[in-house]
């Protein structure tokens, strides 16, 4: 007994071994009953195990249940930033597609830190989700590439599925959209509208898809006879784009007739900076982005961009996360949408 003023020691959690002993069965048999294995257990043993578990107040281990069943009802989605309009829209589409087939989605955020991405994947391996979808942007030279590949391959060895979205830096199932070709087509259409003095806003982080967008835009302009595209790889954000525009000299700004940014979010930052300088869009400078995020419907003037069919990307990613088929890489087309922010220039 406890003396006056003494508190009782915390009760030890009931384990699967405790249930097995109380039911008079082996631990694997108790596990098959309580963790939902497909292997059959004799009705008399099942009744004894369930009765002992109820009497002892046993709480099942969810990861163990997933392993015993060989599946889980959860897809783990790993993204770069939840605050980024593109990634929040991507997450919403994947959740919608997963819920349509009775699955749930957990979300982990890397903050664009390769080491954090690796740590998250290690944690997810222990949780045994049905699939891991990596939708964060891949790196040109990923510092943790070999370790990340190793973790994901170990996860696949336990029956999990790995799906990548818009990153070709890892050897797993991939749903891609053509960053290079989408930007290239946009540049060719804008060159056809008369744009010649262009500024391309890229990323100071060596992100593979952002590099492809800049290279595609420059290629499209070059093919159209425009070889003077200026490239700036600065802070990869709305704020970074706005501050760069505000920091340009008046002479530099006067030379521009177009600002292209590798994301719509950065394009809107550039738009804000141009307006703060007293410039009109599109009368003084045209602006274009990439992604066609849903919030663009509230922007005036309507922003020229490259459309990415996130619903098709999400549908394909969830299908690949839940099928046992071995599929080839799927590339979803990305195509330019010319809007009011880049009207034809007067000759």
Describe the structure in your own words.
By secondary structure, this protein is α/β, with parallel strands linked by helices. It has three domains: 1-62, Orthogonal Bundle (434 Repressor (Amino-terminal Domain)); 72-177 and 312-332, Rossmann fold (3-Layer(aba) Sandwich), CATH 3.40.50; 179-308, Response regulator (Rossmann fold), CATH 3.40.50.2300. 44% of the residues lie in helices and 16% in strands. The strands form three sheets. The protein has a six-stranded parallel β-sheet, sandwiched between helices. Helix 5 (85-99) links the parallel strand 1 (74-79) and strand 2. The protein is elongated and about 85 Å long. The mean pLDDT is 88. Keywords: DNA-binding, Transcription, Transcription regulation. InterPro entries: HTH_LacI (IPR000843), LacI/GalR-like_sensor (IPR046335), Lambda_DNA-bd_dom_sf (IPR010982), Peripla_BP_I (IPR028082).
Look at the structure and give the mean pLDDT: 88
As a percent range, the share of helical residues equals 40-55%
- The H-and-E topology, N to C, reads as HHHHEHEHEHEEHEHEHHEHEEHEE
Name the beta content range.
15-25%
What would CATH call the architecture of the largest domain?
A: 3-Layer(aba) Sandwich
Tell me briefly what this model is.
This protein has helices spanning 16-23, 27-34, 43-56, 62-69, 85-99, 114-127, 145-157, 179-192, 208-223, 238-247, 250-255, 264-276, 310-322, and strands at residues 74-79, 104-109, 131-134, 161-165, 173-177, 198-203, 230-234, 258-261, 286-288, 305-308, 330-332, 334-337.
Key features of this structure:
347 residues, alpha/beta, 434 Repressor (Amino-terminal Domain), Rossmann fold, six-stranded parallel sheet, four-stranded parallel sheet, 13 helices, 12 strands, elongated
């Amino acid at each position: 007994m406890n003396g006056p003023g003494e508190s009782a020691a915390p009760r030890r959690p009931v384990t699967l071994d405790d249930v097995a002993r109380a039911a008079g069965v082996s631990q694997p048999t108790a596990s098959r009953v309580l963790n939902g294995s497909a292997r059959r257990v004799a009705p008399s043993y099942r009744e004894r195990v369930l009765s002992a578990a109820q009497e002892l107040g046993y709480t099942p281990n969810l990861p163990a249940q997933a392993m015993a069943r060989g599946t889980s009802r959860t897809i783990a989605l790993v993204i770069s930033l939840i605050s980024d309009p593109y990634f929040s829209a991507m997450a919403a589409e994947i959740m919608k597609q997963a819920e349509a087939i009775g699955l749930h989605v957990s979300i982990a955020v890397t903050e664009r830190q390769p080491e954090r991405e690796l740590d998250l994947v290690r944690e997810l391996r222990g949780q045994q989700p049905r699939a891991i979808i990596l939708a964060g942007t891949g790196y040109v030279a990923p510092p943790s590439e070999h370790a990340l590949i190793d973790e994901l391959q170990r996860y696949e060895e336990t029956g999990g599925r790995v799906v990548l979205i818009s990153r070709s830096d890892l050897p797993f199932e991939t749903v891609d959209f053509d960053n290079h070709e989408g930007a290239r087509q946009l540049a060719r259409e804008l060159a056809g509208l008369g744009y010649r003095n262009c500024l391309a806003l890229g990323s100071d982080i060596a992100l593979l898809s952002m590099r492809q967008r800049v290279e595609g835009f420059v290629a499209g302009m070059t093919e159209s006879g425009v070889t003077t595209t200026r490239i700036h790889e600065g802070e990869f954000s709305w704020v970074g784009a706005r501050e760069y525009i505000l920091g340009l000299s008046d002479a530099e700004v006067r030379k521009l007739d177009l600002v292209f940014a590798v994301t719509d979010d950065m394009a809107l930052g550039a738009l804000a900076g141009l307006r703060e300088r007293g410039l009109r869009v599109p009368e003084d400078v045209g602006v274009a982005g990439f992604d066609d995020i849903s919030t663009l419907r509230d922007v005036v003037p309507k922003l020229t961009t490259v459309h990415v069919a996130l619903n098709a990307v999400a549908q394909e990613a969830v299908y690949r996360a839940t099928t046992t088929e071995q599929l080839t890489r799927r590339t979803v087309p990305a195509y330019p949408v010319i809007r009011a922010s880049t009207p034809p220039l007067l000759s």
